[in-house]
């Protein structure tokens, strides 16, 4: 099965009706990630074939849970996941990719230019120092930190009635137990990633 076939099959399983142009953008992003990864160490997954399930489809499991949101912040975006796939799937969504690593944000800026992502902004900053003019109705991360640290560092970035959506592997029992009393763990949703035989969960957290 080619990358394109695997991607299209995965999109069908996720019930994401993306256009051919969006599929081409996802493929373009995959090619850039594989190319730059040799120099910039963006991801531990080296094989381009594995990146379809481990990165693209894994990130895209977030998209159905973004309905109604207008501004998304991807904290510790690294190689651009889940922010770039989400931005491709939801061109109406304003996405900010935040990372303190200059090499990674150099890659992210280049990817945004080459993929023509007008709805994406890249910021090089530590999360606690970032002070945007407008706050976000959803803040996500895929590999940034444990839950307690994630919500502790970002409340100044969350709009009123906004929420955190943290992408995790196995059910994070211990991380949930460490959440501060200022937030409520709203729900933990199992995520099924096409082509990936591993546990994935989405943790939704809201402020009290």
TrEMBL record:
PANTHER family: S-ADENOSYL-L-METHIONINE-DEPENDENT METHYLTRANSFERASES SUPERFAMILY PROTEIN. It is an enzyme of class 2 (transferase). CDD domains: AdoMet_MTases. HAMAP family: 16SrRNA_methyltr_G. This is Ribosomal RNA small subunit methyltransferase G. One of its GO terms (molecular function) is rRNA (guanine-N7-)-methyltransferase activity. Its EC number is 2.1.1.170. Belongs to the methyltransferase superfamily. RNA methyltransferase RsmG family. It comes from Craterilacuibacter sinensis. It comes from the Bacteria. It is found in: Cytoplasm. Keywords: Cytoplasm, Methyltransferase, rRNA processing, S-adenosyl-L-methionine, Transferase. S-adenosyl-L-methionine binds at residues 76, 81, 127-128, 142. Specifically methylates the N7 position of guanine in position 527 of 16S rRNA. It catalyses: guanosine(527) in 16S rRNA + S-adenosyl-L-methionine = N(7)-methylguanosine(527) in 16S rRNA + S-adenosyl-L-homocysteine. GO terms for cellular component: cytosol. The gene is rsmG. Pfam families: GidB (PF02527). The keyword S-adenosyl-L-methionine applies. Its main location: cytoplasm.
């Amino acid at each position: 099965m080619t990358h394109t076939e695997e991607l299209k099959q995965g999109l069908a399983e996720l019930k994401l009706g993306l256009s051919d142009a969006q599929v081409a953008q996802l493929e373009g992003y995959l090619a850039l990630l594989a190319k730059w990864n040799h120099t910039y160490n963006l991801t531990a997954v080296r094989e381009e074939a594995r990146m379809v399930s481990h990165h693209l489809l894994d990130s895209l499991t977030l998209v159905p849970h973004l309905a109604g949101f207008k501004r998304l912040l991807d904290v510790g975006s690294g190689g651009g996941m889940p922010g770039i796939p989400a931005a491709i799937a939801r061109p109406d969504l304003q996405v900010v990719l935040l990372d303190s690593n200059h090499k990674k944000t150099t890659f992210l800026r280049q990817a945004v230019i080459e993929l023509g992502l007008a709805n994406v902004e890249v910021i090089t900053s530590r999360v606690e120092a970032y002070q945007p003019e407008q706050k976000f109705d959803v803040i996500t991360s895929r590999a940034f930190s444990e839950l307690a640290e994630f919500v502790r560092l970002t409340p100044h970035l969350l709009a009123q009635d906004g929420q955190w959506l943290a992408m995790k592997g196995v059910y994070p029992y211990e991380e949930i137990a460490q959440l501060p009393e200022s937030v409520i763990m709203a729900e933990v949703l199992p995520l099924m990633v096409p082509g990936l035989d591993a546990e994935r969960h989405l943790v939704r957290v809201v402020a009290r």
